[in-house]
Amino acid sequence: MPSRRILLADDQAAIRDALRFLLKGEGYATTPVSSPAETLAAIQKEEFDLAFIDLNYTRDTTSGQEGLDLLGKLLSLEGAPPVVVMTAWATVDLAVEAMRRGARDFIQKPWENARVLATVRTQLELSAVRRRNERLEAENGILRRECEGDAPSGPGGDFVARSAAMRPVLETVASVGPSAAPVLITGENGTGKGLAARLLHAASSRKDKPLVSVNMGGLSENIFESELFGHVKGAFTDAKADRVGRFELADGGTLFLDEIANVPLAQQAKLLRLLETGEFERVGSSRTQKADVRLLSATNADLRAEVAAGRFRQDLLYRLNTVELRLPPLRDRPEDIPALAAHFLQKHLARYRKPRLQGLDDQAVAALLSHDWPGNVRELDHAMERAVLLAAGDAIRAADLGLGANLAAPVASGGGMALEDMSLEVDKILILQTREAPRGRANHAAAAGNWRDRYAYQPRAWAPLAEEVASVAAAKRAASSGGIATPAPPRAAGLPAATVLP
Ligand SMILES: Nc1ncnc2c1ncn2[C@@H]1O[C@H](COP(=O)(O)OP(=O)(O)OP(=O)(O)O)[C@@H](O)[C@H]1O
Ligand SMILES: [Mg+2]
């Protein structure tokens, strides 16, 4: 087999050289580049099996914006390779954001060589399996539908909500779903806002009409109007033909405005008029048209804070949030983890056809329950997909889940480590120990003082988890199919059983 080609994008020559040396030793061919522009040019010219890209290119900024922009552009190119991003240890949020935008994994600097090589091998393996699978799916329309998240059981897909924290969500969906009331769906990334929008639409009398989604975060100022209102031929240079806007497309159905906080102020006024009157003109036309839409919107931002900061119009907020549906982060509803894991296990087993794979072993279940899930339900979905792909035997092991993979690396032995890096290493060991010894968790987490709160011990969450592990393990022993593939019975009295809406 010809050697696999890996693109290395970093503005620091020392980093490029170190990675290059490491990967070359393992037989990989590398192409180093030092800027976003060079990265894009290289990918258009040559085919790569994997790309490592740094998130910061201008030394004096740490926002990562340049890297995130690069990631977006890169992934939109035809034949883009899977991307692993590189971040400084302190910027886990940035890494999570990059994963949300399509990066496959991240490594933190300073890195562990073994960790980098393991990441490379895993990503190359996964992308080979994905490519094989894409070919199979292209031949099978039914599977393709599943892959788009359109579960066969209903238009909203399966919605798993078993925790007490999700009860208000279910109640709100049941009560306002059938109405035409505007609903603002809020929650962190990956908590299920998009899925909730599909559920609300599916519960309404408009369910046979279209649900039209617009990602407001992805609309540049120029195309905002044309996208929402449509345009007529000749309205601007590129307007070669008439175009129907999303608002008009949604006539009689539901319009879902995703990432609503990202609409610039100038456009918020236009949007408000549209929502208040239902009237609009296609760009380049003076004819006023009207459409009847039910409005759903979603954001991970705090819109009230955005209003207070003068970045979001208050009148627009009032137009959107007649009803607010708040999706709690996954770390606040650990009772949902087993049912969600079982749900995703089924989905990926069907997709990747692994008949031998029965479920998760006890350590894997414990790993799921002790993880903090900064990427919420989407992260769990990805972890299960990865595990289904990588599991070699008849059960998924903790290592297959790849959780905290960056924490699990052995501690560096290398010299020349800066002081602040060393303290990070100490945190890393402490966190590792807390993961391995649940009972000592509180003390260790307290000792790991400067580790971010979100990764630290959550007294509220842990006690029921131990119980959950026990109940899942018991159910696993009892059931012949084994493991979490057979969802455990409801854990405590007063909690609703696993709720699966059509
Ligand atoms: N309660 C749930 N039951 C089953 N699947 C879920 C649930 N919540 C989320 N998912 C699945 O998790 C993934 C992420 O959900 P979704 O895209 O709706 O999140 P989101 O909040 O819109 O994320 P973002 O802020 O990044 O847009 C999807 O595949 C979705 O189907
Ligand atoms: Mg979404």
Strand order of the largest sheet: 2-1-3-4-5
Largest sheet: 5 strands, parallel
Spatial separation of the terminal alpha carbons? 47 Å
- Structural class of the secondary elements? alpha/beta
Based on Cα principal axes, name the global outline. globular
- Give the CATH level 1 class of the largest domain: Mainly Alpha
Strand content: 5-15%
Number of helices: 20
Query: Mean pLDDT, nearest integer?
Result: 75
Q: Count the strands?
A: 18
Radius of gyration: 24 Å
Instruction: Just name the CATH architecture of the largest domain.
Output: Orthogonal Bundle
Name the helicity range. 40-55%
Number of domains: 3
Which hetero compounds are present in the coordinates?
adenosine-5'-triphosphate, magnesium ion
CATH fold name of the largest domain: Helicase, Ruva Protein, domain 3
Unreliable spans: 138-156, 406-502
Can you describe this structure?
This protein has 502 residues and is an alpha/beta fold. The protein has three domains: 5-138, Rossmann fold; 167-328, P-loop containing nucleotide triphosphate hydrolases (Rossmann fold, 3-Layer(aba) Sandwich), CATH 3.40.50.300; 333-501, Helicase, Ruva Protein, domain 3 (Orthogonal Bundle). Helices cover 45% and strands 14% of the residues. It contains 20 helices and 18 strands. The strands form six sheets. A five-stranded parallel beta sheet has the order 2-1-3-4-5, with helices on both faces. α14 packs across α16 (376-390) and α15 (362-370) packs antiparallel against α20. The protein is globular, with a radius of gyration of 24 Å. The structure holds adenosine-5'-triphosphate and magnesium ion (MG). Magnesium ion binds next to α8.
